[in-house]
């Protein structure tokens, strides 16, 4: 039974992707197909988990080749559990993406590409979890990475290309390192089968073994974003569409963590020096990551940094290489996959509702949408590790394991974990107080004394100097306010229709925006700088005003530089021109956030996010059985016998050595 | 059979050249660097198979004389993957060229933000900060000559102080970013 079912988590999504490509012209059929495929994969994964937990690990040799030569798929408790969690999260994100695609009727992203690519991604993740040899782990990685390149640059706007380049180049380097490591492992041992490697690596001398271990860890560390290798993540993740970021944050780094777990338990058990290095890496990951998160004001970047930071917890548990540590790490992986995914989905909802992800510009969301506030608060507290929730249980397990292990480094790690947990609470509670609790009437910038003083000075200066600004504008006489307003509105409308941007509009951008922005902030009935001028909530208005001001300042910055570097001026002028045209055509985020689309929260999206949040809460309720399961999985991993027996059959393990 | 010196030297040379190219700002060179690194890795994996031998076909050669077929199979897979990914990178480079007429890696958003925070505005506005990645976006709808020659307000001397006040305490991702957020909403 399990032999038939085991390849399905890879096969089904791949076949589904092919069918989905064929169905590219029928979006509805495509959606149904993707949902059906992922639903089936989820069912298969749950079956695998139940079977693997009941009967122990099972290995399937693809194509019926003899064991060490064949391509092996190994289902043990760890891989089955990872499969279940990954598929659950992927299904949730897919529903969210479908919901978003349905509500955002504008053809922004090529949705017909999204579905097949997403399925390929799921197939790659499944293959990486099931692969029984190093080279197929590499292939699994490549499959999911290639899919992720496409998803990250979906739509191909300037921002995404820029973020995508970082991600692609770093991932490529990681893959090459991994491949080189595989080559060296093969040169040293003559096999890439993991079960066989677990015997043969033990026979190598210490130096070679440590080198191979470090090479593999470097490659996996890049994927998992462990500290010195984590700088790429916060730069590339936040630019992608919300569902894509969510699934990346949940799954991709965890595949790296999974590979680290396998390496450190099956291939290189008891590697003392390397484990110490990993502990230090974990400590640095936690602290540097969370300090980065505290410094951020953009919600998505903040979440990306907490993602990096909390990878440290898992590496901590793995590096302890005790049953308790591994069990805690696996539990934490499960918890973290669901929690990060739901938080990124909530960030998508916040962006939709508030029109921004910068906490300086958001405000009053708790009053505007209590549901959204709940959806943010519960996973945020969970992430920070507030007692009854699963984040607390995961951290507690790791702390216990650290204390049990004893020694200086684990003690340091325990302290670091506590500090990280507290700083996480600080980071998310700042988001909560600013974006959700702050009264909507309050000016976005008024929360820092510095900023409000600057604004007042600005307003005073503008009042005095407005004539000056208008008068010395050489090309265009000053336009009276009502006319400007009309012009703006018209420009906004043509902009929304994807029409050309006229230079009057650009001049408006350059000169009026800062004044109008400030004026609107101070005098609520002043000129509405937002072209829409519709009956939006005060929040939106204040936010819009602030944004207009900033945007104007951005133009000013360019202008100031152009003055200092005249040779750049022509180029800048053309940029300003083209930028507005591109903004309309290229950037789907701009479309998503047009005022008329900003307010409603489609029930499908809320329900999906709610369901994922419910899963995170359910993890708390299921923590007992889940911890028992991860305990058993950790026991299997450290014992190593179940994995070998699954591959080589029940015979005495050493007989396997006779095989070439 | 004596070990060959040629392969390690070739591998080392390719790695060195590839790493050097990978550190360049120009994406085309990054791609070339990636190709060199990929080839270096492929040769490395190939040389992991041990000494050369006859083609591993039963009946053609005795098993003792055969070369190890597994690294060849691995390298074949790796070549296909490298090829596919290179094609993708090339597409990204082309897209980047279409969008910003440049194929260099632009200054990072985070760097900008940090620069914005510092009071020393002069540093934040040095030419490197508005590097070409930020410059002309897409084929312009209107040429440069259609633009009013002056973009900003006439009080140029105060622009920097004004910016510093505008952005005190805030970390805006609007600053200097192309296209994405300039349009009124």
How would you briefly describe this protein structure?
The complex is a heterodimer of chains A (660) and B (185). Chain A has 660 residues and is mainly alpha-helical.
Structural description of this entry:
- The complex is a heterodimer of chains A (about 650) and B (about 180).
- By secondary structure, chain A is mostly helical.
- Chain A has two domains: about 1-440 and about 600-650, no CATH class; about 450-465 and about 475-535 and about 540-600, no CATH class.
- Chain A contains 28 helices and two strands.
- Chain A has helices at about 1-5, 10-20, 25-55, 75-105, 110-130, 135-150, 160-190, 195-205, 205-225, 235, 240-265, 270-295, 300-320, 325-355, 365-370, 370-385, 390-405, 410-435, 450-470, 480-495, 505-520, 540-565, 570-585, 590, 595-600, 605-620, 625-640, 640-650, and strands at about 60, 70-75.
- Chain A has a two-stranded antiparallel sheet with strand order 1-2.
- In chain A, β1 and β2 (about 70-75) form a beta hairpin.
- The longest helix of chain A is centred in the N-terminal third of the chain and has 32 residues, at about 160-190.
- Chain A starts with a helix and ends in a 12-residue tail after the last helix.
- Chain B has about 180 residues and is an all-alpha fold.
- The model of chain B is unreliable at about 120-160 and about 170-185 (pLDDT under 50).
- Among the domains of chain B are: about 5-50 and about 70-100; about 110-145 and about 155-165, no CATH class.
- In chain B, α2 (about 25-45) packs antiparallel against α3.
- Chain B is elongated.
- The interface between A and B is large, with 116 and 84 residues.
Describe this protein with a few key phrases:
heterodimer, A: 660 residues, mainly alpha, two-stranded antiparallel ribbon, 2% strand, disordered C terminus, B: 185 residues, 6 helices
Topology of this protein?
The complex is a heterodimer of chains A (660) and B (185).
Chain A: H1 2-5, H2 8-22, H3 27-55, E1 58-62, E2 71-75, H4 77-103, H5 111-130, H6 134-152, H7 158-189, H8 194-203, H9 206-224, H10 233-236, H11 242-267, H12 272-295, H13 299-320, H14 323-354, H15 365-368, H16 370-384, H17 390-405, H18 408-437, H19 449-471, H20 481-496, H21 503-522, H22 538-564, H23 569-585, H24 588-592, H25 595-598, H26 603-621, H27 623-639, H28 641-648
Antiparallel strand pairs in A: 1-2
Chain B: H1 6-22, H2 27-47, H3 69-100, H4 109-117, H5 121-124, H6 159-166
Helix pairs in contact in B: 1-2, 2-3
């Amino acid at each position: 039974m399990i032999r038939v079912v085991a390849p399905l988590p890879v096969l089904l999504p791949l076949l589904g992707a092919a069918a989905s490509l064929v169905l590219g012209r029928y979006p509805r059929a495509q959606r149904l197909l993707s949902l059906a495929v992922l639903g089936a994969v989820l069912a298969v994964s749950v079956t695998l988990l139940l079977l693997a937990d009941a009967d122990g690990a099972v290995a399937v040799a693809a194509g019926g080749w003899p064991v060490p030569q064949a391509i092996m798929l190994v289902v043990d408790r760890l891989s089955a559990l990872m499969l279940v969690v990954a598929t659950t999260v992927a299904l949730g994100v897919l529903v969210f993406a479908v919901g978003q695609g349905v509500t955002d009727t504008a053809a922004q992203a090529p949705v017909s590409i999204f579905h097949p690519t997403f399925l390929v991604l799921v197939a790659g993740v499944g293959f990486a979890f099931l692969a029984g040899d190093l080279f197929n782990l590499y292939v699994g990685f490549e499959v999911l990475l290639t899919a992720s390149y496409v998803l990250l640059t979906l739509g191909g706007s300037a921002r995404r290309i820029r973020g995508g380049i970082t991600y692609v180049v770093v991932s490529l380097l990681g893959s090459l390192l991994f491949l080189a490591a595989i080559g060296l492992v093969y040169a040293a041992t003559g096999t890439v089968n993991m079960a066989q490697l677990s015997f043969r690596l033990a026979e190598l001398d210490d130096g070679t073994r440590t080198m191979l271990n470090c090479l593999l860890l470097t490659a996996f560390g890049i994927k998992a974003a462990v500290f010195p290798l984590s700088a790429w993540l916060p730069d590339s993740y936040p630019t992608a569409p919300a569902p894509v970021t969510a699934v990346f944050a949940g799954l991709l780094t965890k595949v790296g963590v999974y590979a680290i777990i396998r390496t450190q338990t099956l291939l290189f058990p008891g590697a003392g020096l390397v484990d110490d290095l990993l502990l230090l890496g974990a400590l640095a990951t936690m602290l540097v990551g969370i300090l980065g998160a505290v410094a951020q004001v953009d919600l998505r970047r903040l979440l990306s940094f907490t993602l990096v930071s909390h990878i440290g917890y898992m590496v901590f548990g793995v590096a302890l290489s005790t049953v308790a540590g591994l069990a805690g790490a696996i539990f934490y992986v499960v918890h973290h996959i669901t929690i990060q995914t739901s938080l990124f989905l909530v960030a998508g909802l916040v962006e939709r509702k508030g029109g921004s992800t910068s906490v300086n510009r958001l405000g009053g969301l708790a009053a505007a949408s209590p549901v959204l506030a709940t959806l943010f608060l519960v996973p945020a507290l969970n992430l920070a590790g507030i007692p009854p929730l699963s984040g607390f249980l995961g951290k507690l397990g790791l702390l216990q394991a650290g204390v049990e292990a004893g020694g200086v480094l684990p003690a340091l790690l325990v302290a670091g974990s506590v500090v990280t947990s507290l700083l996480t609470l600080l980071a998310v509670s700042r988001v909560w107080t600013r974006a959700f609790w702050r009264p909507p009437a309050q000016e976005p910038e008024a929360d820092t004394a510095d900023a409000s003083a600057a604004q007042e000075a600005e307003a005073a200066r503008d009042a005095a100097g407005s004539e000056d600004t208008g008068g010395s504008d050489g090309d265009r006489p000053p336009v009276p306010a009502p006319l400007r307003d009309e012009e703006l509105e018209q420009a906004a409308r043509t902009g929304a229709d994807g029409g050309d941007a006229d230079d009057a509009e650009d001049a408006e951008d350059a000169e009026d925006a800062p004044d109008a922005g400030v004026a609107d902030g101070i005098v609520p009935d002043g000129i509405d700088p937002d072209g829409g001028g519709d009956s939006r909530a005060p929040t939106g208005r204040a936010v819009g005003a602030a944004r207009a001001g900033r945007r104007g300042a951005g133009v000013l910055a360019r202008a100031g530089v152009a003055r200092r570097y005249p040779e750049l001026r022509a180029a800048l002028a053309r940029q300003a021109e083209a930028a507005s045209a591109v903004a309309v055509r290229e950037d789907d985020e701009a479309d998503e956030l047009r005022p008329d689309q900003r307010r409603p929260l489609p029930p499908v999206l809320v329900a999906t996010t709610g369901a994922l949040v419910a899963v995170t809460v359910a993890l708390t309720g299921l923590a007992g059985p889940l911890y028992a399961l991860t305990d058993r999985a950790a026991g299997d991993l450290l014992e190593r016998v179940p994995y070998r027996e699954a591959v080589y059959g029940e015979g005495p393990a050493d007989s396997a050595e006779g095989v070439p | 059979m004596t070990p060959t010196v040629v392969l390690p030297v070739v591998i080392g040379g390719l790695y060195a050249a590839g790493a050097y190219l990978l550190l360049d700002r120009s994406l085309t060179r990054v791609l070339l660097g990636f190709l060199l690194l990929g080839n270096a890795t492929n040769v490395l994996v190939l040389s992991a198979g041990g000494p050369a031998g006859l083609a591993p076909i039963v009946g053609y050669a005795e098993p003792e004389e055969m070369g190890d077929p597994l690294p060849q199979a691995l390298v074949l897979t790796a070549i296909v993957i490298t090829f596919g990914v290179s094609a993708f990178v090339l597409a990204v480079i082309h897209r980047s060229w279409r969008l910003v007429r440049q194929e260099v890696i632009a200054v990072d958003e985070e760097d900008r933000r940090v620069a914005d925070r510092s009071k020393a505005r002069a540093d934040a506005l040095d030419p490197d900060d508005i590097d070409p990645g930020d410059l002309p976006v897409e084929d312009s709808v209107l040429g440069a000559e259609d633009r009013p020659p002056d973009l900003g307000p006439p009080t140029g001397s105060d622009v920097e102080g004004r910016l510093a006040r505008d952005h005190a305490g805030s970390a805006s991702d609007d600053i200097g970013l192309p296209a994405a957020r300039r349009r009124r909403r």
